[in-house]
Design a protein that fits this description.
By secondary structure, this protein is an alpha/beta fold. It contains eight helices and eight strands. The longest helix has 19 residues. The chain binds S-adenosyl-L-homocysteine. S-adenosyl-L-homocysteine binds next to strand 5 and helix 5.
């Protein structure tokens, strides 16, 4: 079964959006993954299909109603649906490549996109929503966060990227940031290429890349080195 994404949103027209172009879009058209963007307002209450209300206890902004979101979720999932239900939320677990890999290994995702001040807490509990954040900043809605999460997942689906995403070397895959890349021309504005890359010696090239990855990680993200993957093993060619 291909990876199935259901997105619950007040703005389904934002999907597939950028995921409809390039390799993700090709994969979508080929059925390597599927996307079902559902209008939460279809489950709104009353003549005006209301989806939000004032915050209990007062204060500014509006809160998405739990009953409306629950109805939207219940309509999107089948009884034996094992896909995780995610709520895009700045309070959530920070999205990283490990979580992306776990999600891609499953059957897909159901993603709830918040808007306004957020969602009534009770639907998070009542529908077992897992809160996921894309970083420590505030977006105006969960849609762009959902697009980021899906983009990261979709590129790992077999067949979507071809060999580009085979990615053992890619940043974060081995606990390191990636080494620098170069291509033609061989000289540009007085800058040449690192000698190791011109050597034709595969072991030397692998060693150079490994060392550069370690150096850059040490300089920019020493926290990654502390996360358990010890970068001591020399890379094999
Ligand atoms: N009042 C909330 C922010 C609401 S922003 C707070 O202070 O935490 C409106 C919606 O945008 C959120 O419900 C969430 O779905 C989405 N959103 C905003 N920032 C996000 C982030 N960093 N990661 C994931 N979703 C985010």
């Amino acid at each position: 079964m291909p990876f199935r994404a259901s997105v619950l949103t007040l703005y389904p027209e934002m999907f597939p959006g950028p995921l409809g172009v390039s390799l993700a879009g090709e994969g979508l058209r080929q059925g390597l993954w599927s996307l079902d963007a559902r209008q939460v307002r279809d489950h709104g209450v009353g003549r005006h299909r209301t989806v939000d209300d004032n915050p209990a206890g007062g204060g500014a902004g509006m809160v998405l109603r739990c009953d409306v979101l629950a109805a939207a979720i219940d309509a999107a999932v089948l009884p034996d649906d094992r896909r995780p239900r995610l709520l895009m939320s700045p309070r959530g677990r920070r999205l990283d490549q490990g979580l992306v890999r776990d999600l891609v290994a499953g059957e897909g995702v159901v993603i709830v996109c918040g808007r306004f001040e957020g969602v009534d807490e009770r639907v998070i509990e009542g529908r077992n929503l897992v809160e996921v954040s894309v970083g420590d900043y505030i977006l105006s809605g969960g849609e762009m966060a959902a697009l980021v999460l899906l983009d990261a997942c979709v590129r790992l689906i077999p067949g979507v990227m071809g060999k580009e995403a085979s990615g053992q070397d890619e940043s974060f895959e081995n606990g390191l940031l990636e080494y620098p890349h170069y291509t033609r021309p061989r000289e540009w504005e007085g800058r040449g290429l690192p000698e190791a890359l011109l050597s034709g010696d595969h072991a030397r090239i692998a060693r150079w890349r490994r060392e550069e990855a370690e150096r850059i990680t040490r300089e920019r993200r020493p926290d990654l080195l502390q996360q358990g993957i010890t970068p001591t093993k020399p890379a094999s060619a």
